[in-house]
Write a structure and sequence with these properties.
It comes from Regulus satrapa (Golden-crowned kinglet). Helix content is 23%, strand content 26%. Helix 4 packs parallel to helix 5, helix 6 packs across helix 9 and helix 13 crosses helix 14. The relative contact order is 0.10.
């Protein structure tokens, strides 16, 4: 097996290198910034250097950690691990110079680190500026190590105490460039790994069958990495599918199931009743491909998707504006259930199971998902038995959800059914949108603590009056599988469900739910403010504002908060000021990249929202 290559930088007396050089299967390259003559003059350094050479390690002097590529030939640059213990510019260098040192070091590491390699940086207590430091310094007074690493494409994947006493023969030295030790009590070892590459926003075009015609349309840019991900497919180990399968298995104990998800179209035509247009992802077919009205008037498009990459042809999409022959991505599976009810294509007492991704424009918030996987359960029962059958359905859902995490992570979800009237005005975007689709009887809420309330993950409703019959009563339950996965697996950010980093799915063997451990710790955040005049006499579409932020940042905006609403005396002009926070949950986001996103956001606000920047 190929030996693991380890590079050590900034060694003072080489005692750390000497302590690890005997590890089996390890090839050590120990370096320092000083010349050999200067380094050998430090106490114990000559002895450590001899030990290193006796063990077959390579010792290199006068190595600049910001120019590593210059010190190693192309064949020698694939290091599996790089150590830099207690970096310092020397003498009385302040935080600014030491940040510059670290920034140059991280950029240099990208040229000599193996793809799956690690960078270990040990810092004294408080220097790193992360919540792991106790006590924690103020951000401006720290070395901001995670942000500096992000600028070079690294994420902090682990942090743990640096225990000098466990390293045989190790003695820290180099205090202010002298042969003096310094305190390492409370020191931390920060472990960085490569981030996945930034998303490529090449326009994606999808083809679909409409009647007898094959047409194509461009996927909205904010959804290009979310179309056709296959989370619910048979070979998927994604927690969303695991939850869906376990729920179905639990429900099958009480009801015969009919799964009809495979033929559900993704594209609809017309306008969804009762739904605000600004919440819809409108689609304009590519020029020259408008289908016959007669061929598509019978219902939703019958879609069979094939994605391909092409040029940007979607110039005619107008967010929130209905135009003739316009289509939209489905915001719910409920219309499909209603179509089944109208046709009578169901067996009384059998549970119809529909599932698939749905798409909704919404504000940026922790539990507001522009795309998620919906599980829709439809049950038709004989009139007079509806109360008992509905209760059996609800009890089964509660029991199954409660048991999903039993014996795995220790999370004990609390499940509650709440009357629709008990929520008042405090509705999540998910619950509020569901309210647009029809009257709701119950909300299904899941919490991960003993509190009776939690996040709304589902709604229960009965069929509207026009779909009722004398013999049957139809009830449906809609569940947000993505929110369930977040709550049951301890995933704090919905964007993590869509990450392309294989370390996410690597934590979920097929058929198992586990407590998620983030591979990107303490990601840096960057705050920018933007203020503008809204159009005279016009309403400001805040959902469109949030959707634009999602698009230009590639979902890197984690929060948008209204800071000021000012009306100019005399003219009556209204000005809004928002605070926009950029932060990634799964990949490196540097300060410069966030600033570029903010600039693009400002540039696109006027043509897309009609506002005037201040």
């Amino acid at each position: 097996m190929k030996p693991r290559r380890v590079l050590l930088l900034g060694e003072g007396n080489f005692s750390f290198s000497a302590a690890i050089c005997g590890a089996p299967g390890t090839q050590v390259v120990a370096t320092c910034y000083e010349s050999e003559e200067e380094a050998a003059g430090r106490g114990g350094a000559a002895r450590s250097i001899r030990r290193l050479r006796d063990c077959g390690a390579q010792v290199v002097f006068s190595v600049d950690c910001t120019k590593l590529k210059e010190h190693f030939s192309p064949a020698e640059r694939e290091f599996d691990r790089i150590y830099f213990n207690f970096p310092h510019c020397g003498r009385k260098a302040g935080v600014v110079k030491n940040r510059q040192l670290l920034a140059g070091f991280f950029h240099s590491c990208t040229e000599v680190l193996a793809q799956d390699g690690e960078v270990h940086v040990a810092l004294c207590n408080g220097q790193g500026g992360t919540p792991a430091d106790q006590p924690r310094r103020e951000w401006h007074n720290s070395w901001q190590v995670v942000a500096l690493a992000a600028g070079a494409g690294f994420i902090l994947s682990d942090v743990h105490p640096f225990r000098a006493e466990t390293i045989c023969g190790y003695k820290c030295t180099g205090y202010r460039s002298q042969d003096k030790s310094f305190s390492v009590e409370g020191a931390l070892n920060h472990i960085f790994t490569r981030s996945t590459a930034p998303l490529c926003f090449t326009p994606v075009s999808c083809k679909t069958q409409l009647g007898s015609q094959r047409v194509s349309f461009q996927v909205p840019q904010v959804l290009v990495d979310k179309i056709n991900r296959g989370f619910l497919e048979v070979n998927s180990s994604h927690p969303v599918r695991t939850i869906k399968e376990k729920l179905s298995a639990g429900l099958s104990q009480a009801f015969p199931l009919q799964n009809i998800s495979s033929c559900l179209p993704l594209l609809h035509q017309g306008h969804p009743d009762g739904v605000c247009p600004s919440n819809i992802f409108w689609i304009t077919l590519s020029p020259g491909e408008a289908p016959n009205t007669e061929e598509t008037s019978q219902g939703p498009a019958n879609t069979d998707f094939f994605c391909h990459f092409g040029q940007d042809t979607d110039k005619n999409v107008q967010d929130g504006c209905l135009v003739p022959q316009q289509f939209y991505l489905r915001p719910s599976l409920l219309p499909h259930a209603q179509a089944i009810i109208k046709k009578g294509a169901f067996s009384p007492g059998a549970l119809q199971v529909l599932s698939g991704p749905v798409f909704r424009k919404c504000r940026i918030a922790p539990h507001s998902l522009p795309v998620f996987h919906e599980l829709l359960l439809v049950l038709a029962v004989s009139r007079g038995t509806e109360s008992s059958c509905i209760q059996v359905l609800l009890d089964n859902i509660q029991t199954t959800v409660s048991s999903l995490h039993q014996g795995d992570s220790g999370i004990k979800p609390s499940i509650s059914l709440q009357e629709a009237t008990s929520f008042g005005a405090e509705l999540s975007d998910f619950a509020a949108f569901e309210g647009q689709l029809g009257e709701i009887q119950r909300f299904l809420c899941v919490g991960t603590d003993p509190e009776p309330s939690g996040a709304c993950v589902g709604v229960v409703r009965t069929a509207p009056h026009e779909l009722k019959s004398r013999e049957l009563v139809v009830v449906s339950a809609s569940l947000n599988l993505d929110l369930l996965a977040m709550l049951l697996c301890g995933i704090s950010d919905w964007r993590m469900l869509w990450t392309s980093d294989r370390r996410f799915l690597g934590q979920f063997p097929e058929g198992e739910l586990r407590l998620f451990k983030s591979f990107s710790l303490y990601p840096p955040s960057y705050v920018h403010d933007v203020s503008f005049w809204v159009p005279d006499g016009g309403e400001f579409d805040e959902v469109a504002f949030h959707t634009l932020a999602r698009r230009v940042s590639g979902e890197m905006v984690v929060s948008i908060q209204l800071r000021d609403n000012f009306q100019q005396p005399g003219t009556g002009r209204r000005s809004l000021c928002y605070r926009v926070t950029f932060q990634s949950c799964d990949r490196a986001l540097g300060c410069r990249e966030a600033a570029e996103m903010q600039l693009r956001f400002r540039e696109e606000m006027q043509p897309h929202l009609g506002v005037t920047l201040r």
